[in-house]
Amino acid sequence: MKRSNSNINIATAAGATSNNKRSARAMTMPSVSASLSSLVDLMSAGITPQPTPPKRIRVAAPPQCAAAAAAPPSAPYAASALQPKLVPVGASNVQIDQSGLSASWAALYDEGAMVRGNVAVTKGKWYYEVRAVTAGRMSIGWASSSANEKLGVGGDRRSWGFDGCSTWKIHNGRREYYGHSWYQGDIIGVALDADLGTLRFSINGVDQGIAFTNVTAAGVGSLCPAASLHPYQTLVFNFGAEDFCFPPDGYEPLYCKLLPDGRLVLESLFEKYRKLSAEEDATNNPAAASSCDVIKGAGFIKLSEDLGVSGDYDPLPLLLAWKLGAQRQWELSHDEWVSTFSKLGAGTLEQIKAQMCGWKETLRRDDDAWGRFYLYVFDYIRGEQKTLTLQEATSVWDILDIGSRWKLYPRWLDFLARSSAQSKAPSCISRDTFRELLPFVRAFPEAVDRAHYDAEAAWPTILDEFVEYLGECGPSAEAAATPL
Question: Which distant-in-sequence residues (6+ apart) come within 8 Å of 54 by Cβ?
Answer without folding.
Answer: 167, 177, 178, 179, 180
